[in-house]
Write a sequence for this structure.
């Protein structure tokens, strides 16, 4: 008809899924650091260039300053069989180093050699970061204007490229990771790290790894309850592949495998639209379908949920627990597909209201039936974030009414009245379970863990956090008598995570620990060290016979409590504790 | 987690479906007319009050003015067997008339009587209207600010209440409609219209209906191709019943029955979201579901479409044609349910683009299969509004590729190149089919009709349009050699249609012809008269033997062309023509 009408363009929910920009998967150029740094004149004054020396895994070496602190040409690492150990070397040069490559000679001890696939070598890359809140207290809050924050490039991503041109007058750290086979013989293994290239003579460093006569079992069997939340939506967007397509799962495979190797126990699943109100660059959608038919009946479809959970449990091996978010989102809007209008509609209801129960009870009963069919019911929890206690009580009622067997998980503060109903209870950093409660929970096989997020200035895993803080967290789990650690974001990538870890909210790096590619990070490797340390502590607590040794271990562990913690102490504290641990 | 986050409240698509306000279904109070009118003093000066006299169905009697023109105490109507005839009486009083009721004595002719259920009596009610555009040219365009328009109360809705208190110093028109049974004997039937009440002596008027010895068949069999677009969504919202629930269909039943009795041939169906971009108070949603599965396949569901079309064809009897809107909406956004995100997504694509064909071809093939299963394929058309010819050509290609048997309908201007492919082609008022084309189309059984909308200043059916203009339209169909008439809105009600026919777009009344209740209107009854007149013309063209009479008929009909049309001529032209028609 000839009607004058405003053409209203609207496209719903496409959000970041419709992103047209593409981002690097292999080679890329870093952003430019605007910080003052050594001038080319200073760089050229150096007697010897290029140079290679051992550095410290505690240091994020500035990209354009001549390294202040290096540690010669020999380094010695200690580790258990089955443990991953890390070292960092530093390469720097006044001239460009073309097509630099890394290699490590076989690590040999007498007639024994560590297999070459035990070793991984990485060029450390630089990512844009910012800083803590101006008051120095944590990194929460919105950061819409990046210019308000002091930004700089920091060393964090561990690159996967095999050859790099190192820019003139710059530093190129090199990360060495050795996963000692559990079948290795104890002893001192020696090898040589070589950096070679097109326009310079090979540079070499000596590496020794002392394999101790103790064994750390495979991550899958670790007692440590690790729960880093996965974001499959970020992967689909970044890799520009259809969500839940085969390509999508192939893209996720190495990323989730890395997580499994860190000891992850929990699959992150969603049972409603935008459980966290789209706070991440790539919002979480629902993995289940709830359809309201025109006859008033409801039907539910689990195609996506089954495919995702099946992939994680059966193919990746993260199969201990499935956490389903959430019944108490920030925005109390609950989605369903409305057959009458062929649209998505939202029920707006608070826990305790009839509309809330109507929406959830029907779904939860059917969900329980489905989970039992799949054999997943026992490992599934209905998950909540910290909300006011009344709301959580009301939600619990609805869950238990739907199926008394449902497990429930909560990440939040300590609520005495809720505790008995929570299978997986994760406390905010600084909160503790009363010892008898913790005992009871342990005997009941319940999980009692701790989390950090943007709230903590330190210890934390922001891209600007000192690397040792990531390691510290594992020790804290042991010190606090927790079963493990939770972080809200394993890979909720920013728009361009390889180049810029800053986000519209929270201090830089809060949203992810690993990079596309799949690339690990200094933070992730140091966090794994901490998790390994905790596992080792627990093993020694079971196996150490000498009372003196037990006391020494206990004293060492007890240092790792938040009380009177200062940033300066953390790194030396971690190093000293790790030495002691390896001496027991 | 303890994140600071903006709580973004959002509720999608709920639109008017979530309307909390409720609106009257039975008794209600009209808005107040701010127009100057006769003072109470003038009203009280009247020698006789209350008074009742015959009026004219051409006049919308002002509510607060003593009627300027009435026509005594006797009136005579003429009609064919099976025809509906209308008369209007005017009641006015300086004092309030309490509990006024209407009755008509049996209409008697010798020993024959017309059955009482042939008669319906209505208090005419008053609704707020506005005016044509300031330039006097039509009523298109947006009208966000009601104060910019000269608004007034006009007589239009035909109420269903049986007793009314008539306000002091006001006019209460009374509408008389008699549906002459096709079994009635020819002759002059006489009866008495009585208005009685609690506080006044009964008032009476004489009514005579001359039943002519010709028969108008039942509306269902009329040749007149009537296509007034239905809006089921408006009914659900106004009646506050769940869309497509049994209560919804019960609410629609009398409204759609009225439409069937007007000779409606077409069911209005939608096959995508907001085909007209939500231009009406209650937007149209899709009646079919298109789901994109995560394996890339598509599935389609027709539950809503089948229920709506089944209701209209089988229960209401509007079963000649099903028009499905649309492949070329204003906003080229095409909805589907995305299993990956459990959300509604939109394909943004133009006809001719691959994404456009991909979206439509799969659906149309499956739709054809489904329609054949239901036995509806032959009566279904894929419908388009006027769009640029290239886009329409591209859409046609996709349709024919999906199933060469698909019928297509278009309401728009005349496009020679498209005409052969259009089964149902409705031209904008003022456009004509070349005579040979019309001949060919008629022989092929194709429908060739005409439409009016906001464009025409007159003749039109705005709430302020002179009633005879609605009647004129039927004559125009005969004069233009069309098969029928289309209007874009039968019941796309405004927010409060009983009290206020103004809308955010277009001149008042453009959006609907009938009122909730189900209440007819002066416009609707006069439109039905026009349709009946056209049907009578076609019958006489077939049956009149006398050449002179045929010529007389033809001359009379030919007056009804847009050329040189003036508003003043319309009413007398219609009256004269109807006299002649009843004299043949």
């Amino acid at each position: 008809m000839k009607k004058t009408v405003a053409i209203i363009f609207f496209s719903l929910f496409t959000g970041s899924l419709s992103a047209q920009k593409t981002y690097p998967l292999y080679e890329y150029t870093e952003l430019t650091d605007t910080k003052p740094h050594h001038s080319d004149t200073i760089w050229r004054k150096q007697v010897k260039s290029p140079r290679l020396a051992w550095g410290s895994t505690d240091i994020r070496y500035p990209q354009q300053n001549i390294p202040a602190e290096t540690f010669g040409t020999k380094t010695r690492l200690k580790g258990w069989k089955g443990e991953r150990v890390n070292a960092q070397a530093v390469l720097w040069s006044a001239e460009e180093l073309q097509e630099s490559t890394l290699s490590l000679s076989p690590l040999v001890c007498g007639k024994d050699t560590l297999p070459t696939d035990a070793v991984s070598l990485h060029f450390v890359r630089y990512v844009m970061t910012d800083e803590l809140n101006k008051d120095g207290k944590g990194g929460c809050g919105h950061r819409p204007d990046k210019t308000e924050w002091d930004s700089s490039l920091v060393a964090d991503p561990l690159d996967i490229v095999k050859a790099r041109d190192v820019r003139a007058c710059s530093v190129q750290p090199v990360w060495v990771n050795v996963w000692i086979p559990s079948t290795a013989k104890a002893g001192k293994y020696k090898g040589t790290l070589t950096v070679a290239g097109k326009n310079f003579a090979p540079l070499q460093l000596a590496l020794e790894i002392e394999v101790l006569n103790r064994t750390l079992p495979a991550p899958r069997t670790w007692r440590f309850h690790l729960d880093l939340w996965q974001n499959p939506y970020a992967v689909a967007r970044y890799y520009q592949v259809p969500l839940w397509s085969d390509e999508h799962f192939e893209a996720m495979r190495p990323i989730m495998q890395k997580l499994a190797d860190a000891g992850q126990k929990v699959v992150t699943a969603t049972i409603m639209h935008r459980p966290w109100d789209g706070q991440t660059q790539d919002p979480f959608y629902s993995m289940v379908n709830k359809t309201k038919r025109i006859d008033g009946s409801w039907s539910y479809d689990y195609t996506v949920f089954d495919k995702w959970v099946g992939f994680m449990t059966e193919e990746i091996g993260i199969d201990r627990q499935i956490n389903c978010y959430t019944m108490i989102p920030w925005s109390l809007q609950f989605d369903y597909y409305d057959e009458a209008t062929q649209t998505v509609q939202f029920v707006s209801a608070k826990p305790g209201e009839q509309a809330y129960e109507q929406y959830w009870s029907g779904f939860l009963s059917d969900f329980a039936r489905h989970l039992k069919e799949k054999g997943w019911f026992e490992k599934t929890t209905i998950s909540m974030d910290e909300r006011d206690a009344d709301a959580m009580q009301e939600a619990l009622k609805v869950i238990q009414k739907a199926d008394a067997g449902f497990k429930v998980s909560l990440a939040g503060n300590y609520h005495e009245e809720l505790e008995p109903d929570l299978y997986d209870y994760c406390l905010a950093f600084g909160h503790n379970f009363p010892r008898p409660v913790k005992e009871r929970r342990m005997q009941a096989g319940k999980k009692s863990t701790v989390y950090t997020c943007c709230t903590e200035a330190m210890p934390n895993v922001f891209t600007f956090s000192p690397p040792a803080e990531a390691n510290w967290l594992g020790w804290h789990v042991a010190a606090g008598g927790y079963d493990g650690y939770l972080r809200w974001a394993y890979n909720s990538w920013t728009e361009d995570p390889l180049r810029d870890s800053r986000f519209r909210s929270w201090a830089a790096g809060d949203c992810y620990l690993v990079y596309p590619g799949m690339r690990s990070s200094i933070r992730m490797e140091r966090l794994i060290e901490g998790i390994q340390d905790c596992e080792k502590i627990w093993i020694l607590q079971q196996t150490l016979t000498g009372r003196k040794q037990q006391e020494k271990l206990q004293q060492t562990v007890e240092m790792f409590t938040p009380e009177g913690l200062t940033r300066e102490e953390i790194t030396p504290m971690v190093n000293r504790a790790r030495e002691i641990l390896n001496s027991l």
About this structure: Chain A has eleven helices and 25 strands.
